[in-house]
Design brief:
Distance between the termini: 93 Å
Number of domains: 3
Structural class: alpha+beta
Helix content: 25-40%
Strand content: 25-35%
Largest sheet: 7 strands, mixed
CATH architecture of the largest domain: 3-Layer(bba) Sandwich
CATH superfamily of the largest domain: FAD/NAD(P)-binding domain
């Protein structure tokens, strides 16, 4: 017999269902959770959070912060370069890749629509501990009843577009006030209602993921410092058959005492799970990510097969397809758990104002689909795909889509003013991207200018950890045959002595300096550039760490700026300069704007005011001449 009291019903007791239950309990709405929570000790997908997920977790679960780990950024590796984004709100940078912090932009966009800064910024989540804590909260709630059964039938009134009741496999029937289908891959409601499902990509993906744990000897402050290029960030690697022996995408997510590794590849490829993990380990090591040195012990593996899809209808008059039940995209979009948390954060609004909340949820799912399409460029790339094609589309997707998705939650949850500003922010993002494309063309990149040299820096870091680096034979022969110029010899001597390059090598009076391909002047302009940060930045020196002789007087210098910033000794990320020498002097220097952040301050502000900066440098050059 049906239970007489109509209640909200949640189908599924995974993270989606438990998070919805937490929100309904917070709103004091009685509800039933139908299902059995999955084993808590098994590895799980969805451990790396972008900004929206981090904001929701920070606001919904302030008492569960012990399961959150701050991450500095997210990095994307191809076989020849690294792209990155500092999604945290602090100015913490990857030590081997020059990236543009969008921390200032993050703080502005968050504050504009009514959010406070998350305590830890963007985070990784210990899903084992977090899911266990969620289950305890769910079972302890006076507003939640857990029924460990399965849904056998869905009674649906098509004319009213309402689910009236659910029949369980134990014979019980539950009257439904509102139904949240959080069954994910089981897709209970879509199958019962015959909802159209549209594939977002061809074929099935086989996903193998594992946890590796640290030992007392393997994970020390010294080892973390030695591996900090990856141990404090999310890392996504595009895998290529000709290079890595497997076609797919891998990831590395450090979470305190363990690291979560995973690989997604086409299911029709004949590759055993253990072989896939072995190829992933090798590919990661070749890119400088030697996770087994820090996390040597395999602690468990899981494998699933999945398709990427979206349902044409994700909600009705009293039902919703929550999170990955309604839409599932590339795992590297980080929208899987995000969509679950989004639905959870508006669960009470869906019951109280279903029409408005459902409309916003549909808009959000459309944005998730657009994000999936944007990431398809990265996933479909080959070894021949130009880096610029991958990079630009990936960056637009990360920045614009990430904050566009965030505005939909603010539209419902942060009041009327935030709802108005959320619409304004979406327009602002479109204009920002459009202006970037028009004003900067191919140079526009809101996150990072990733160069092949960045990957060489990671290889150099791998060498520091003990792996030998073998130079190509032709390159080595060219270095041996051509006698170095006096200027090149001076640069190498400065590197050996760790001396100030600016004091060790003569700059020609006819020096030409270019930034982003644009000339800014000569020797006086260069000196004005070094003084640009005063009085905040003083005592600037330039310490070279590597030089490449490219023949014909051309060279590339890898160096860091050092100086006192606001009274404290600081150094910059690695900067790259292309130069030319003649005799004992450097006659030309060229670099990208993002390598000068140390001297010029916030890179985002510098990019916007770049034209004015060129004028001020020219005026400084005149004053110094």
């Amino acid at each position: 017999m049906p239970q007489r009291m109509e209640r909200a019903i949640i189908i599924g007791a995974g993270i989606t269902g438990m998070a919805i239950s937490a929100q309904l309990s917070q709103a004091k709405i009685h509800h039933v959770v139908v299902g059995t929570p999955p084993p808590n000790q098994a590895p799980k997908l969805g451990e790396s959070m972008e900004m929206l997920s981090s904001v929701i977790l920070d606001e919904m679960f302030p008492d569960l912060h012990e399961h959150f780990v701050a991450k500095r950024g997210i990095f994307f590796y191809t076989h020849k370069a690294v792209m990155g984004a500092n999604l945290n709100l602090a100015r913490t940078l990857h030590p081997r890749v020059d990236i543009v912090s969008i921390g200032g932009v993050s703080a502005f966009l968050l504050g504009l629509v009514g959010y406070r800064r998350p305590r830890l910024g963007a985070i990784h989540v210990d899903r084992i501990g977090f899911d266990a804590a969620l289950e305890r909260k769910m079972r302890a709630s006076a507003y939640c009843t857990v029924v460990e059964a399965q849904v056998a039938d869905v009674i649906y009134d098509a004319a009213a577009d309402r689910i009236t009741r659910l029949r369980l496999d134990d014979g019980r029937e539950l009257e439904a006030r509102y139904v949240f289908d959080a069954s994910n891959q089981a897709r209970v409601v879509p199958k019962a209602l015959g909802l159209e499902c549209r594939p977002l990509s061809d074929g099935t993906q086989r996903v193998t993921f594992a946890h590796y744990r640290a030992t007392g000897e393997s994970r020390t402050p010294a080892t973390i410092a030695a591996h900090k290029n990856w141990a404090l960030s999310s890392n996504v690697v595009r895998l290529f058959d000709p290079v890595d022996g497997v076609h797919g995408v891998g990831w590395c997510i450090p979470i305190g005492d363990y690291v979560s590794m995973g690989i997604s590849r086409p299911a029709d490829r004949a590759l055993l799970d253990e072989d896939a993990l072995a190829l992933l380990e090798r590919a990661m090591a070749e890119r400088g990510i030697r996770y087994r040195q820090v996390y040597p012990d395999l602690a468990g593996t899981q494998t699933i097969e999945t398709r990427f899809f979206v349902h044409d209808r994700v909600c009705g008059n009293n039902w919703i397809l929550a999170g990955q039940t309604g839409c599932q995209g590339w795992f590297s979009t980080l929208t899987g758990v995000e969509s679950s948390l989004f639905c959870a954060s508006i669960a009470d609004k869906l019951i109280e104002s279903p029409e408005r909340a459902s409309r916003v949820y549909r808009q959000y799912i459309d944005a998730v689909v657009e994000t999936h399409k944007g990431f398809t460029t990265f996933h479909a790339s080959t070894v021949e795909t130009p880096l610029a094609v991958v990079e630009r589309r990936y960056h637009y997707t990360l920045v614009a889509d990430l904050y566009r998705r965030l505005t939909y939650q603010a539209q419902l949850c942060n009041g009327r003013i935030a709802a108005l500003l959320a619409r304004f922010e979406r327009v602002f993002l479109k204009i920002w991207i459009w202006l970037g494309k028009v004003a900067a063309k191919d140079r526009f990149c809101p996150l990072v200018v990733a160069e092949p040299a960045a990957f060489a820096q990671l290889v150099a870091h791998a060498r520091e950890l003990g792996q030998a680096e073998v130079a190509p034979a032709d390159e080595a022969r060219a270095d041996a045959d051509a006698p170095p110029s006096a200027a090149l010899a001076s640069i190498r001597a400065a590197i050996e002595a760790k001396a100030d390059l600016l004091a060790s090598v003569r700059l020609s009076p006819s020096l030409t300096v270019r930034i982003d391909g644009s000339p800014i002047g000569g020797l006086a302009a260069w000196r004005a550039l070094l003084r640009r940060g005063e009085p905040r930045v003083t005592g600037v020196t330039m310490i070279a760490e590597k030089v490449e002789d490219r023949g014909g007087g051309a060279l590339r210098i890898y160096a860091r700026f050092h100086g006192r910033v606001d009274g404290e000794d600081r150094s910059s990320p690695m900067a790259v300069f292309d130069g030319a020498v003649d005799g004992d002097a450097i006659v030309a220097l060229s670099t990208a704007r993002h390598h000068l952040t140390f001297l010029l301050g916030n890179n985002a502000r510098y990019r916007i005011l770049f034209g004015l900066t060129r004028v001020s440098l020219a005026l400084g050059a005149r004053a110094g001449s």
